[in-house]
Specification:
The complex is a heterodimer of chains A (373) and B (759). Chain A has two domains: 1-145, Phox-like domain (PX Domain); 162-373, Arfaptin homology (AH) domain/BAR domain (Substrate Binding Domain Of Dnak, Chain:A, Domain 2), CATH 1.20.1270.60. In chain A, 65% of the residues lie in helices and 6% in strands. Chain A has eight helices and three strands, in the order βββαααααααα. With 759 residues, chain B is mainly α. Chain B is built from 24 helices and three strands. Chain B has helices at 14-25, 31-42, 45-52, 54-72, 78-112, 115-133, 137-160, 164-177, 182-192, 198-211, 219-242, 244-296, 300-322, 326-342, 347-374, 424-438, 453-461, 466-488, 490-493, 496-503, 518-538, 544-594, 598-677, 680-756; strands at 382-392, 399-408, 417-423. Chain B has a three-stranded antiparallel sheet. In chain B, helix 2 packs across helix 10. The chains are: A mainly alpha (373), B mainly alpha (759). At the A-B interface, helix 6, helix 7 and helix 8 of A face helix 22, helix 23 and helix 24 of B. Chain B: Residues 40-50, 79-90, 291-312 have a biased composition (Polar residues). Chain B: InterPro entries: AH/BAR_dom_sf, PX_dom, PX_dom_sf, Sorting_nexin_N, Vps5_C.
């Protein structure tokens, strides 16, 4: 999403769209991610180890770029929620599909995050990005105050400002659309997660059944018994392959549509945050205007100054925001399409393999054991 | 396997005849002699009685009169007697066999005894019979008539045949044709042998009376005669004590068959009725009398009595060895006895019952024998399906009725297709009848699904939700498989109750099943299991095969239970998946409707449709899992219970054998003590008891071996069926799995271009 890298304008020494998160190393309760990025010079790769705290540091740095005009109009690539080893049920719900498997989905999501950041026209210029991707040592330990910027403050003000009438029809419409899309995407992602979870349960149940069938094998010379034992073994194989098939299906679900829906959901959330920041600024502008009008002559100049500054800022934000929204709309459709197509292709492949296996099993069983009378 | 249907009385099995011939001709060809003596038996009692047992003499006198009357009366209804007798012929012939065997066994022991003593018993019985009938004078007369008729018949037959051995055979046949009770009369008649008039018959008797005490030849035959008498009595006698378990099953059988066969038996039977009825009651009475007499009487008389006891038991043993079904033979008689006792005023129904039941039994024996020859070749051209579950009635009195459809080319059924309405308790009733009849013999009777109060209550309340539909469907399938298993069983298919279940329009309501709820059923199985485990501790298994099998069955049971739980979990997950897929489809549809991009929006709503179809597939898969495996495994858990039940029955037989051995040991010790104490009078009794128990031990041992063999055969069959069954199911399962997978492929193939079309 938003992958258009400005030609030659890259401030990074690496290919932004080629950042990889290759693995997650588990050390006790802490997770460390190995991040690999290709040097622009083509002379090699940077391999760095980063923790979730480092990622938070990066995101904080991106948020707090005071000097970039209109930075608040940017739809910041959403950082996935904090990963937890052995997450409780609640955390699983928050993480969605990212909590599944051995963190591969999470790595994919981080990868997407970093790629989005590194290839973002504005964000990649931040020095923190370069440091984060290339510096062998983890970035400074200064744990900037917990970034509540996006979350808590929003929750409080949201109710007050969310419904605020927008001056711009475009943004008003976008806000309405976004509200629906956020809910829809979140819901879809959750439902899809349920499907995947159930598929995993089925896979496990198939595995158990398959294992239990092995225990039904009876020793003995008796042909009937042997026939039955062979049937059990065969059925066990069938269920084993059903289990694998189901696992594949679940994995496909996670890796394609699951990640896609998750990203969609988080991006809608990010857009909503951006829109909210813009709305806040808009409210700020309105206040400044009012203040300037009512201001006593002594303060009039100062107030006008503030008003102008705020209006300027708001203008920048709106401009950036408009571009961002347009880009976002384009790229999310692309992203979803890719997810759907890949999903479909992989499921098709899995289904065909499974059908092939099943027909082999069927042949084998037919050839087996007591002749059908 | 389809021999003759029970409806037409089966012809005498050749093998039976041969046996009889051998028995009769070989060891004791002088069946005639025996009969001669026997005839005397009816009259001689008077003398012996007078001397030995003063109290018993009175009844005997009374009795004496009626027979004479009957004899003096010309043959009133000879034909009727014949017809009635036929059904029971088999039974009688069997007893004859036994009888002969016994005679061989006993003759030695009996040789010592004087004829008159041995004669006491028959006379007693006779008297009893008559005595029992005296209250109802009418019946008495009837009985007399019949007996006369029988006697005449016999005489005719005997007349025609001159050769002694041939006569023996014929006699046997005749005797067999005559009801058991008639035997006494018959024998008396046969004694005459020459087609002489009634007078003559009376004369020989008298002669014999006078002769008997000193007669040298007499002892042997007389003892035989006694034995013959004993046979009838012994059956009945032995039952209550030894085969209590078998009693019940017979009851049910008895009730059922009689109704059916009653019509077939016809009027002739009704005439015979009173006679027969009187018969069973009498032996029992006699027996008790004998017992008391034995106690009170001193010396020879008492010893004789004890001996008779012994003979009874021996004979019973023989019967057992003869055919598996014979066990059941006994009990009907037993039943009859009780019935008669219960309502002496209305003997006719019971009579019809007796004749009717005897018929199926005999045919069953035949079939069983044949079947054992063919044994493994068990492909029956019969298919049973249970269809159209239908709720009948409202509220808590509602019940489900099913259409039981039978398609068969077997000649024993009336039509190629049969259709009857049956309710669930009818299925349970069938099972109870079958298990009571065949269980003790070591057969594995397929069990029906358990009663489910919860499931049925839901249905009754009328909730048309998926769970009650699911319940009904599950039960329907289980019932169908249950019936199919029953008809696939070569022995069970021959059972009259099975045929009746499949054929008859109206079935008497099965009442006893009411209490058999699911919990009760489980409890029953557990109890059986406990009993088995308890007994296995006591039983030091001599047969490794059984030891291993029992362990296998136990472990298989555990495995199947585990598998069942796992499959049920799988099914639950599948249902969950189906549900989740549906809700994802819904949310995808919502997402699609909210989407601005038209191509994406369309793709998303297509996706929703695909997921809806997937949901159907998952649903189907859940059902597939349920019906292919879950239910199959549940069936097999039940079947394993039945297998254990058959093991249990085998151990019971073993236990009986062991108990008899212990008892024999005790008796021997007693004998040794008596010998030491020098009490010759009691010594005689002890010896007889030992003989009796020795016979029992051999009998029970054979019995045990027979049950063991049956169980073994059944278990082998069970395993064969199991393998076949599972294979069939697995193939079915894989086929449907493959089909649904291909469906999935189709869905994805259809969706792919839609996804690609998003731009």
């Amino acid at each position: 999403m938003m992958e258009e890298v400005k030609e030659g304008a890259s401030a990074l020494s690496v290919h932004g769209h080629n950042v990889k998160v290759t693995e997650a190393l588990k050390d006790g309760d802490a997770l460390t991610f190995l991040i690999v990025s290709e040097k622009l010079s083509g002379t090699g790769e940077y391999h760095v180890h980063r923790t979730y705290e480092d990622l938070e540091w990066l995101q904080h740095n991106l948020f707090s770029q005071e000097d970039v005009p209109g930075i608040q109009g940017v739809i910041f690539p959403p950082l996935p929620a904090r990963p937890q080893v052995n997450p409780p049920a609640k955390a699983v719900k928050q993480l969605g599909v990212l909590a599944l498997g051995e963190w591969q989905p999470y790595c994919r999501a981080l990868e997407t995050f970093l790629q989005q950041v590194a290839s973002h026209g504005t964000l990649c210029k931040n020095k923190a990005v370069e440091t984060f991707l290339t510096d062998a040592d983890p970035p400074g330990k200064q744990r900037a105050r917990r970034n509540l910027f996006n979350r808590l403050s929003q929750a409080v003000e949201e109710l007050r400002k969310e419904g605020h009438k927008d001056v711009d029809e475009f943004f008003h419409a976008e806000r309405g659309r976004n509200a629906v899309a956020t809910g829809g995407a979140k819901n879809a992602a959750e439902r899809f997660l349920d499907v995947v979870l159930t598929q995993q349960k089925i896979a496990v149940a198939c595995g158990h059944f398959s294992a239990a069938l092995h225990l039904c094998v009876e020793p003995g010379e008796d042909p009937d018994k042997q026939a039955f034992s062979k049937l059990c073994v065969k059925l066990s194989e069938v269920f084993e392959s059903m289990k694998k098939n189901m696992m594949n299906v679940a994995e496909n679900n996670v890796n394609t549509l699951g990640l896609g829906l998750d990203l969609e959901s988080r991006y809608q959330e990010a857009e909503r945050e951006m829109l909210f920041r813009r709305t806040c600024k808009m409210v700020e502008v309105e206040n400044a205007r009012r203040n300037a009008e009512r201001a006593k002559p002594v303060k009039k100049a100062a107030m006008e100054e503030v008003k102008r500054a705020t209006e300027d800022e708001f203008g920048h934000i709106s401009k950036v925001a408009k571009d961002e929204v347009a880009r976002f709309q384009g790229s999310r459709v692309q992203m979803l399409q890719r997810a759907l197509v890949r999903w479909c292709e992989q499921q098709l492949l899995t289904a065909r393999q499974s059908a092939e296996q099943l027909s082999q099993h069927l042949q084998a069983v037919r050839a087996l054991g007591p002749r059908p009378a | 396997m389809a021999t003759s249907s029970e409806r037409s009385p089966p012809p005498f099995p050749d093998s039976e005849d041969q046996d009889l011939l051998e028995d009769v001709g070989g060891p004791e060809s002088d069946a005639d002699d025996g009969e001669d003596l026997f005839l005397s038996a009816s009259s001689p009692p008077v003398t012996s009685m007078d001397t030995a047992l003063p109290p018993a003499s009175k009844p005997s006198d009374v009795l004496m009169e009626p027979p004479i009357d009957s004899i003096s009366n010309p043959l009133i209804k000879p034909v009727t007697s014949q017809t009635e007798n036929k059904p029971t012929s088999e039974v009688v012939s069997e007893t004859f066999d036994d009888f002969f065997d016994l005679t061989n066994n006993i003759t030695e022991a009996a040789a010592k005894d004087t004829a008159d003593i041995s004669l006491d018993e028959p006379s007693d019985r006779f008297v009893d019979i008559l005595g029992s009938e005296t209250p109802a004078t009418q019946e008495e007369v009837m009985a007399a008539d019949v007996s006369v008729a029988a006697a005449t018949d016999k005489r005719d037959v005997t007349n025609s045949v001159t050769d002694p051995p041939a006569v023996g055979k014929k006699e046997v046949k005749e005797a067999s044709t005559a009801p058991v009770i008639n035997l006494s009369v018959d024998s008396s008649a046969s004694k005459t042998q020459q087609p002489v008039a009634v007078d003559k018959v009376a004369e020989p008797l008298v002669d014999f009376l006078s002769d008997t005490p000193p007669a040298v030849d007499a002892p042997k035959p007389s003892s035989a005669a006694v034995d013959l008498f004993e046979d009838d009595g012994s059956d009945l006698f032995a039952d209550p004590r030894l085969i209590k378990s078998s009693k019940k099953p017979q009851k049910s059988l008895f009730g059922e068959t009689d109704e059916d066969l009653f019509g077939a038996a016809g009027d002739g039977v009704s005439v015979a009725g009173p006679l027969e009825v009187s018969n069973p009651t009498e032996p029992a009475d006699i027996f008790t009398e004998q017992g008391t007499a034995a106690v009170s009487s001193v010396g020879n008389a008492s010893t004789v009595n004890s001996k008779t006891n012994g003979t009874c038991s021996e004979e019973e043993a023989d019967i057992f060895s003869e055919a598996t079904v014979e066990l059941s033979l006994d009990s009907p008689q037993n039943e009859r006895k009780t019935e008669v006792k219960a309502k002496p005023s209305a003997p006719t129904p019971s009579l019809s019952a007796t004749t009717s039941h005897a018929k199926p039994q005999s045919s069953a024996i035949e079939e069983l024998e044949q079947e054992e020859e063919e044994e493994e070749e068990d492909k029956f051209d019969i298919y049973v399906s249970v269809k159209d579950p239908e709720k009948i009635g409202d509220g808590m009195n509602a019940y489900m009725a099913y259409n039981v459809l039978t398609q068969t080319t077997l000649p024993m059924f009336r039509n190629k297709t049969l259709s009857v309405k049956r309710r669930f308790s009818d299925f349970l009733g069938l099972y109870e009848k079958l298990s009571e009849k065949h269980g003790p013999n070591g057969f594995i009777v397929p069990p029906p699904p358990e009663k489910s109060i919860l499931g049925m209550t839901k249905v009754k309340v009328g909730k048309e939700d998926s769970s009650s539909v699911d319940f009904v469907e599950r039960r329907r399938g289980a019932l169908e498989r249950y019936l199919q298993r029953v008809v696939n069983h070569p022995s069970l298919l021959q059972d009259p109750d099975v045929r009746e279940f499949l054929e008859r329009d109206e079935l008497p309501r099965a009442v006893s099943t009411q209490a058999l709820s699911g919990a009760g059923f489980l409890k029953m199985i557990n109890r059986a299991t406990d009993a088995v485990s308890k007994m296995t501790i006591k039983m030091n298994e001599s047969d490794v095969w059984f030891e291993e099998k029992l362990q296998e069955v136990e472990s298989a049971d555990q495995q199947f239970r585990k598998l069942h739980t796992l499959v049920e979990t799988l099914v639950i997950h599948r249902k969950e998946l189906s549900f989740n897929t549906a809700s994802f489809a819904k949310s995808a549809a919502m997402l699609g409707s909210a989407e601005d991009n038209t191509a994406l929006s369309r793709a998303l709503s297509q996706l929703a449709e695909v997921e809806d179809k997937m949901e159907q597939l998952h649903q189907g898969q859940a059902e597939n899992d349920t019906f292919c495996f879950s239910e199959l495994i549940a069936d097999y858990i039940r079947l394993l219970g039945a297998v254990r039940g058959s093991f249990d029955h085998r151990i019971k037989a073993w236990q009986r054998w062991q108990d008899a051995q212990t008892m024999l040991q005790k008796k021997r010790e007693t004998e040794a003590k008596l010998l030491w104490a020098n009490k010759p009078d009691k010594l005689q009794l002890a010896k007889e008891e030992i003989a009796e128990w020795e016979a029992k031990v051999t009998q029970y041992e054979r019995d045990f071996e027979r049950v063991s063999a049956t169980v073994r055969r059944e278990v082998v069959r069970f395993e064969k069926e199991k393998a076949k069954n599972f294979k069939r199911q697995i193939i079915k399962y894989l086929e449907s799995l493959l089909q649904s997978q291909q469906q999935v492929i189709k869905y994805w193939e259809a969706f792919l271009p839609e996804a690609k079309a998003i731009a």
